[in-house]
Design brief:
Elements: E1 2-7, H1 15-29, E2 33-38, H2 53-56, H3 64-72, E3 77-83, H4 91-103, E4 113-119, H5 124-137, E5 150-152, H6 163-188
Parallel strand pairs: 1-2, 1-3, 3-4, 4-5
Helix pairs in contact: 1-6, 3-4
């Protein structure tokens, strides 16, 4: 089993990385493989609503969003991490998630996921809610911990001082491992994911 840790910060080794690292430590103790997917800090185009991916199954922009969509097919679980900007996740993370989830939602469906936030002081719970909405739309079990999944610090070396935040990250990794094993046990017993129906209602018609 493999969990993809998506780092939506512009800094590969910043506060978000420390939080994800603690989740990875707990997963490693449970024998779960992890991989860090750093989105990067280069400009990324937003979704242009061309709907071409409805025909091809792939976004027209061949960049990190497409790479994430491809990797998602090979992974069993996800942790999406982001710093908080104005009580919101990073725009680069949301851009990548918008395009990857819209173009390749089948690669994420029914796989456990969690959101992790880092902040100096506030805005974490609002950002937590934003990221979790992607999971709830895509039939993904949301992995919880023993508190909301966030850490505090202005610099990476300050994050470990947030003992409760680090404990929350560690417990999150343990809970993710437990849920992955439960899903695998069900799969071995012949319990498959349900075939969800898809009906769209436009309120103006």
């Amino acid at each position: 089993m493999k969990v993809l840790l998506v780092n939506g910060s512009s800094r590969p080794d910043g506060c978000t990385s420390v939080a994800l690292g603690e989740v990875a430590r707990a997963l490693a103790e449970e024998g779960i493989e992890t991989e860090v997917f750093f989105i990067g800090n280069k400009p990324l185009p937003d979704c242009i609503a061309c709907r071409k991916c409805r025909e091809t199954g792939r976004c027209v922009f061949d960049d990190r969003a497409c790479e994430l969509a491809d990797k998602a097919a090979e992974c069993d679980g996800f942790v999406f991490g982001s710093p908080v900007y104005y009580a919101h996740p990073s725009a680069r993370l949301l851009t990548v998630m918008d395009r990857a989830f819209y173009s390749a939602g089948k690669n994420f469906a029914f796989k456990p996921a969690a959101a992790v936030l880092s902040a100096r002081r506030a805005g974490t719970t609002e950002s937590f809610d934003v990221i979790n909405k992607y999971f709830s739309i895509c039939s993904m079990p949301i992995v919880c911990s023993t508190y909301w999944n966030h850490v505090y610090g202005t610099q990476p070396e300050e994050v470990p001082e947030d003992k409760e935040g680090m404990m929350t990250m560690y417990n999150l990794g343990k809970n993710m491992a437990w849920l992955l094993r439960c899903i695998e046990a069900g799969r071995q017993k012949g319990i498959a994911a349900p075939p969800n129906e898809k009906v769209l209602t436009n309120f103006t018609r």
